[in-house]
Amino acid sequence: MTQPSTVTRGRDRGHLRTALTLAAANVPVLPLRAGKVPFGNCPACRDNACGGRSNMKTPGPCHCPRVCHGWAAATTDPTVLRAREWAGEWREAAAVAYHPGGAGLTVVDLDNAQAVAWARETLPATRTVPTTRGEHWLYRGAMQSANAVRPGVDIKSTMAYARWLGPGTGTVASLTDVVRALVMKEPAPARPTAIPVPALAGGGGCPHRTPTYLDRGIAMAEQRITDAREAVHATVYRTFLAVLSTHGRCGCLTEVHTARLFTAAQAKGESARHCADAWTNALTKLGL
Question: Helix, strand, or coil here: 136?
Fold first, then answer.
């Protein structure tokens, strides 16, 4: 049997040692493979076949002992980190990641010099960590994560992971409304009138614009996704399809509504990319 090289064993011990140090400071951690991405789920958890965790808002895997479910696998338990089920991942790990929200933190990921310059002019001063192309700005407090809140800026906190690049410099400031507001989007404008609008019996305004009608529909869709115990991918797609078939042609849906649906899906273990693909496929299916 081929033994791991000395370099690999040294890297393994180095990453694990870093992870254990962070875990002792109550920072949930997990290994990352090359490309700064988590290790894939094991066969039993692939495509969320295991049903995921009953409460994906807290860090930790499902009942599987492997490094499954990405950010949700992050843990502060040294026994889990040292477990033989994680040994192979530590041997192959290219970096250590942590779950900022699980540590009560928010990371503003600034991906280039322009984004850093914007942050210095706009955001409260706080601890900064240099990255390959920009900086991570750390704030005390957790919030919703979101990608591309503006050019070169991502928010990493709950249900997300960030690469550990060192403690950084400066004092960690408390999370403020200025940062929280970055994930709040203005409602999308109504769809162009060129999109067909269903004829309404007896005339009058579109009934979908009645707040109670629309909110009840979105709430039911969220619950359907939340209640899914298997075939989560298919359930998300079918739910998106049902929502769009009812509300997709009259301009009622805004980014606020779609964000609610995407959040429910991601709480079940779906990635942002899977949500976007399912939404696009539903639009295509309906010819929207």
Answer: strand
Tens of pLDDT, residues 168-193:
999 999 999 999 999 875 544 444 43
User: Which residues make Cβ contacts (< 8 Å) with residue 281, sequence separation at least 6?
Assistant: 237
109 and 156 Cβ atoms separated by less than 8 Å: yes
| Reported pTM | 0.62
Residue 89 and residue 73 in contact, taking contact as beta carbons nearer than 8 Å: no
Distance CA 184, CA 207 (A): 26
Q: Is residue 282 within 8 Å of residue 244, measured between CB atoms?
A: yes
Q: Measured between alpha carbons, how far is 274 from 262 in angstroms, rounded to an integer? A: 10
The β-bridge relationship of strands 95-98 and 135-140 is unpaired
Residue 100, C-beta contacts closer than 8 angstroms, at least 6 positions apart = 106, 107, 138, 142, 156, 157, 158, 160, 161, 162
**3 state SS of 113:** helix
